[in-house]
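Re: the 197-residue chain
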Amino acid sequence: MKDVLIQYMKRFCHLSEAELKELTVGIPVAAFKKGTILLHQGDVPEKCYFIVKGCVRQYAVDEHGNEHTYNFFTEEQSVTIFNQHTSDKSSKYSLSCLEDCTLVVGDLATEQESYDMHPVLEEMTRKMMEVDMGAMRDDFSSFVSSTPEERYHHLMANKPGLIDRVPQYQLASYLGIKPETLSRIKKRSSHHLRMID
């Protein structure tokens, strides 16, 4: 199961496969059932995750009881809630498994100890975070300046399989539109593709 993690780590360091295997020996991999809440909104995050298999949703419930989806994480993505800038360190988001998931589980409390034992791990993590943060920044800029239809096409280009993996109302929430608007956009897109064929 850790082969996926090792292949991912290879992108961010020059360690051999044997060295990476040794580095991941103590890293726990756990299975979570569909519907498992990994983090509740308002709790202080204690874990971070790397997705070997499955899909995790990041969402929040507002003061009116409405759910808002902020992100979907799938294979080869890390899932961490950054909230060290907040006074009480509590999370504004919940994390939920949308499918049965296999996740590498990191302990935020012992993160520094791991870095002290394996300095290369800290450098690797920093590079991974830079890539993740850069992608999130690009996605956010694109989201703000685009129409709902453009957002949908951007999603299809970057995560084509997601549309069949998550409930449509959550996908609509993520795109910032109503489910019926998403249905219309999908219909127009499939009609356009048929015209091209």
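The chain has a mean pLDDT of 84.
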